Amino acid sequence: MPSELTPTLDWLQAQPQLFAAVCVALLASVAWLANWIVKRLLVRGIHRALGATAIGRHIVTGEQSIVRRLSNIVPSLVLSSGIKLIPHLPQAAVTVVENVCQAFVVLTVALAIGGLLKVANALYQQRPDAHLKPIKGYLQVVQIVVYAIASILIVASLIDRSPLILLSGLGAMAAVLMLIFQDTLLSLVASVQISSSDIVRVGDWVEMPALNADGDVIDIALHTVKVQNWDKTITCIPTKRFISDPFKNWRGMQESGGRRIMRNLYLDQNSVRFLDSEEIARLGRFALLHDYLEHKQDELGEWNRRLGEKGLAPLNQRRLTNLGTFRVYMENYLRHNPRIRQDMTLLVRQLAPGADGLPLQLYCFTATTAWAEYEAIQADLFDHLLAILPEFGLRVFQHPSGADMREWRAPAVEPRERQTAHA
């Protein structure tokens, strides 16, 4: 030590409080210098080294770099080690500084472990089959356990007591803890069931009417499952609701490659009638009906001939109807449509008539599951059927509109107008 500083040092030692304050300032400066050196030199070097690998880039990037976070431990260790060497400090102050530094180290390590778990999830999401078995919920459970242990260690450090003392009191608080974490426990059980039974995956189209959710699953976490609805809103559904509440998963439809069309065409029952020979000949020119009408006429002719004299009366004869012929046309039209799956259920059936007319239901599957293409195929089918319906002498049923009312009133109004004009 230089001789020029000896008188100053002797004078400071004669002032215990001032000497302690100077030592504390020096210790703080050393801690700041250690922090600066670690972050400017060591951390940058580690960043460059880890940045060359895919895993390393996830560790050193993001809002909070794991390496940069761990570097905060160095000044804490400097403070906790150096505070013991400063003379004339109260033992209580030394204990407080040591405990706070220990608690900070524990908190920093816990946050770093949480960051590593997020990195592990991000790396797992890069796998092509990650959406089949998401691990985000399990990692969140581990994160909760780490934070719970860290909380116990931090409290034990701050009160300067053994963590075992705190753990011994947790037995009596088990019921309270289960009440507090009941949602977490239920969500954990639900996550295990969802994963093991493959109930929901990321990317599935799910529909849960009870919560007005209808869209794609974009995230499966421990407590919530996020569904992006078709109107681009986000619905957060508790994970346990997928076990307790009914919902529809459209994954089976998407994987099958065909989407169902089940729509009714309501016909006016008053337009249903028998076909005469001229109409049968005209409809026979339809390529989709030619073979059917030939075969059906032979079948009905043979049936009527077996009736003998009774078959001469139209009342006893079997005859073709415009409704039955149109139903066959609809089915043949679907059979020859390349955009309709022929290996899945395909039928045209007549349902029970009601106040809204006679329902003729079209039931088939499209050759695509894309929403826009599906709607276009369905619209094209019914455009054609509605346009060709008058060829069979059939009418679509619909309730009277304002235009119909005006047409009905026109004949009644016309004589009055004539009387007024004559007067």
Q: Could you characterize the architecture of this molecule?
A:
With 423 residues, this protein is of the alpha+beta class. The chain contains 17 helices and eight strands. It has a five-stranded antiparallel beta sheet with strand order 4-3-2-1-5, with no helix packed on it. A three-stranded antiparallel beta sheet has the order 6-8-7, covered by helices on one side. The longest helix has 35 residues.
For the secondary structure, the number of strands is 8
Which consecutive residue ranges, at least 5 long each, have pLDDT under 50?
A: 415-423
Secondary structure: helix percent:
55-70%
Rounded to the nearest angstrom, the distance between the terminal CA atoms is 135 Å
Strand order of the largest sheet: 4-3-2-1-5
Overall form = rod-shaped
Query: Which strand-content bin applies to the residues?
Result: 5-15%
Count, helices: 17
What summary fits the major beta sheet? Answer: 5 strands, antiparallel
Task: Give the helix/strand class.
Answer: alpha+beta
Helices and strands, in N-to-C order? HHHHHHHHHHEEEEHEHEHHHEEHH
What does the average pLDDT come to? 80
